[in-house]
Amino acid sequence: MKFLVFLGTVRESTPPKPARLGLRVAKACIACLDERYAEHDIELIDPLDYPLDTIFKPQFSYLPGKAPEALNTLADKIASADGFVMISPEYNHSMSPALANLLNHFGSSLFAYKPSAIVTYSAGQWGGMRAAVNMRTYLAELGCLPVSAMIHIPKAQEVFTEEGAMQAGEDKNSWFGYLGRTFNQLMWWAQATNTHRDVVDPHNMVGDFTKTPTERNAP
Question: For the sheet containing 2-7, what is the strand order?
Answer without folding.
Answer: 41-45, 2-7, 83-88, 116-121, 151-153
